[in-house]
Amino acid sequence: MPQKIRFDCYYKYHELTRILKALAREYPALLSLASIGRSYEGRDVLLATVTNSATGPASEKPAFWCDGNIHATEVSPSSALLYLLQKLLRGYGSDPGISRCLDTRAFYIVPRVNPDGAEQLFAERPRLLRSSTRPWPYDEEPLEGLEVQDVDGDGRMVQMRIPDPNGAWKVNALEPRLLTRREPTETGGRYFRLMPEGLIPDWDGITLKVKPPKERLDLNRNFPADWRQEFEQGGAGPFPGSEPEVYNLMRFIADHPNITGAISFHTHSGVLLRPYSGQPDEKMPAEDLWTYQKIGERGAEITGYPAASVYHDFRYHPQEVITGVFDDWMFEHVGVFAWTCEIWAPQAHAGIVGRKFIEWYREHPAEDDIKMLTWADSLPGGSAWQDWRPFKHPQLGDIELGGWDYLYAFRNPPPCCLEAEIAPLADWAIFHCLISPLMELRSATARRLRAGVWLVQVVVENTGWLPSYVTKTALQHAVVRDVVAEIELPQGAKLCSGKLRMECGQLEGRAYKTSAPGPFTTDASTERAKIEWVVESQTAGEVQVTVRHQRAGVVRATIRLEAE
Prior knowledge:
- This protein is of the alpha+beta class.
- Helices cover about 25% and strands about 25% of the residues.
- The chain has 13 helices and 24 strands.
- The protein has helices spanning about 15-25, 75-90, 95-105, 115-120, 245-255, 285-305, 310-315, 325-335, 345-350, 360, 365-375, 420-435, 470-475, and strands at about 30-40, 45-50, 65-70, 105-110, 145-150, 160-165, 170, 180, 190-195, 200, 260-265, 270-275, 305-310, 335-345, 385-395, 395-405, 440-450, 455-460, 485-490, 495, 500-505, 530-535, 540-550, 555-560.
- The strands form 6 sheets. An 8-stranded mixed β-sheet has the order 1-2-4-3-11-14-12-13, with helices on both faces. The chain has a 4-stranded antiparallel β-sheet with strand order 9-6-16-15. Strands 17-18-22-20 form a 4-stranded antiparallel β-sheet, with no helix packed on it.
- It is elongated, with a radius of gyration of 28 Å.
């Protein structure tokens, strides 16, 4: 019976595992499931390999990497990758693009990189961690502060509106459910302090602050690219790749040089982010930047999310940069085009245009808040916003609970919005996989030169859009090997010219073509390689030729040497 997957809810680890195993049983010719390692708490990190096994193993095809949920509360990426899996498996045989993709290429998909952190979110008493559950930088509980939790038992964690004559907030005159900033010189009104919903054990009755968790790692700062120590960037860990969840990914990717690109799914902001994170575009090889921009333009068309540079468009502070992240590592060290897809922007659904991704939270027009509330009111069951209601807090006394459901209004889409939000992302991943290099056999012949001597010729070509090496960075950093051709001779035969193994350069693609042909356009056949051997054999037999490229795939040919 076909596996039914709902996309109006979020899944715990055991539920996600059950779905993945059921899909593997249902589609054994297309999907294989394996663990790439264990998390800090010992859970298997599952990887789905998707390809048509009848046309060859995934390891001999160009492959595309997708992962999600490296950050604990970012659970919608797992749903996005389940949606991608379902689309690939059910579309094979009926959708020509998907069928071509799985016949010639492969996907490596990790729906939940960080299962421990997600389980903390789904626990009976949820805890909101950034990433891993491993204590860092100290193995001790912070002593004081507000513990964020569901204090009224309604299953949500919202905000506490606390009356305070020195509070920074007041009721919005146009919409009393909203708060707005108190004016710089304003006095004499009714003011509030806002805190996350939670309890304050051993409160001194005066000071309010949020108690930090003892688990302060950020797994997406633990990758080697420009990694920095804790004093420079919090959460980066003791050394690059120190955390098992990050090491799992790095080890697998290093062992699979057929990976040609990657998308890491995160939340939130509704944007397709590309490297660099720590330096400007001018530092990137021009061809790589142009290609990134082209892929981003197509991604924006498919998903509705704009494409942006982290360094230029997504910095948390204008004088700070982010380093040690996955997509920088994939681009800088592995040499492929990698993206961070930040799923979901409630502002976009509220009709707010021209928003800057980070700056909006610091400064935006008051009208935006009314648009946001109007949007929240349109959702079934008040799933994003809770109207303020009185609550007797055990430490703070008479307060009000309400406001935004951060986890399912901002951090992740409300369940009712989930499927519509993630569906286009699958199409972008499929597009990105299909632009990979793909080496195919154009011809394989043996021509008699004289009695007992043949010229064996094989021609291969890259029919993909990207060049075989994928990025200029890969060439500069020497992380990709040339095309390798090997010949196996029949018994008694010998080579007169050529070598048993030869390196044959790289195969260009179509990515660097101009937008329209001009008077100086020439189309040299740089996407092809002609490989020749002179073979001497006094008897009939078969020559076996294998041509392989780490990223563009493997082709084989059997060539008959006919008798005199």
